[in-house]
Amino acid sequence: xxxxxxxxxxxxxxxxxxxxxxxxxxxxxxxxxxxxxxxxxxxxxxxxxxxxxxxxxxxxxxxxxxxxxxxxxxxxxxxxxxxxxxxxxxxxxxxxxxxxxxxxxxxxxxxxxxxxxxxxxxxxxxxxxxxxxxxxxxxxxxxxxxxxxxxxxxxxxxxxxxxxxxxxxxxxxxxxxxxxxxxxxxxxxxxxxxxxxxxxxxxxxxxxxxxxxxxxxxxxxxxxxxxxxxxxxxxxxxxxxxxxxxxxxx
Length: 250
Prior knowledge:
Blueprint: E1 2-6, E2 9-13, H1 24-39, E3 44-48, E4 53-55, H2 60-63, H3 68-86, E5 92-96, E6 99-101, H4 103-109, E7 113-117, E8 123-124, H5 136-145, H6 148-156, H7 163-169, E9 174-176, H8 178-193, H9 197-218, H10 222-230, H11 233-249
Parallel strand pairs: 2-3, 3-5, 4-6, 5-7, 6-8, 7-9
Antiparallel strand pairs: 1-2
Helix pairs in contact: 1-3, 3-10, 5-9
């Protein structure tokens, strides 16, 4: 991963292995870059991936055989890092260059604006189709970011949506040709960076406050509740099928 400054905008490119699967090393890298951005804040941030994926979600091969206590630790760490992005005091634009699935969709949803490439990419939270629940940090940030009618198809049905479908649901705010996506994202971030920074930060914090209160109210048992779904026989069978298919693709 790296950060490039383009005028008032910081461009964070996620370069963390195949399809930017999210495991401990990914979170370490993202947290380190967030530390730097908070130390020297940009006017706005653009977050993007590379190739066909923004992020394919959690690194399932690394998680499948972890004991429950380690899974609790991981999902708490994941949630904490997502909330760091969610609460950044400056504007954040996600340039969703390709697939943003499950945890990858969660990451995109932490941004203030989501622009997506036209084409074959898919975005969504398909956890329910794998027998997995969602921690409060994922549900409440989604609830904050998308229109209420989208919540059922996104969460309870677990659809993976085309760019056009995602735009209709409010999962993303605009679509652009792949070759223009990054340019348009930087333009949008530059426009947001022109808003007075202190006022923006105060108002963004106010908008985020109900979601953060709901996450806090879920309490310390929330992560354990998610793990209880991850370790069921049905979820393990479905997850191992996914991992086997990924291995065949090389």
